[in-house]
Amino acid sequence: RLYQMAQFYLYEPSAGLYGCPLAMTNGAARTIEVSMCRDPQTFWTSGQWMTEKRGGSDVAGGTETVAVEQPEGTYKLYGYKWFSSATDADITLTLARIVDDHGSTVKGTRGLSLFYLDVKGQKSNIQLVKLKNKLGTRQLPTAELLIEGATAHKVSLNSKFHDG
């Protein structure tokens, strides 16, 4: 991984568009490598949709996106993501709070769960609200998104996340 990171460090300044999505994809791949196909012939990109308007980078205090468990074990996500990295990616990792049987969620870091969301398969449940006008990699679309019932799978492999 150190050699890989060194190569990426040298490549990234000239990459423009690809630096951020490759870094996001690398992070996503590492997180879900035990549950996803690792066939090198199948290329996919990943984003990370963590930030919400209320909390900025304070995801523990600012995440208001909720996850409602479905009978088959998946979750429906509902919330507003203020900054989505690699909005046009194939998949994304995102944070949400699981709603219990009483309609409540757990506050703080313990209440956060990490979810895998197949973006390409459910465009009708993800509304692009506003593209970001930002400095840096303008070629990489980042946006404010409204998630309205998108189906997601709970990942939460890290003990930092609440297992519900």
From TrEMBL:
Ranges of residues in domain Acyl-CoA oxidase/dehydrogenase middle: 48-148
One Pfam family named in its UniProt record: Acyl-CoA_dh_M
GO molecular function: acyl-CoA dehydrogenase activity
Matching PANTHER family: ACD11 DEHYDROGENASE, ACYL-COA DEHYDROGENASE
Protein name: Isobutyryl-coa dehydrogenase, mitochondrial
Top-level taxonomy: Eukaryota, Metazoa, Spiralia, Lophotrochozoa, Mollusca
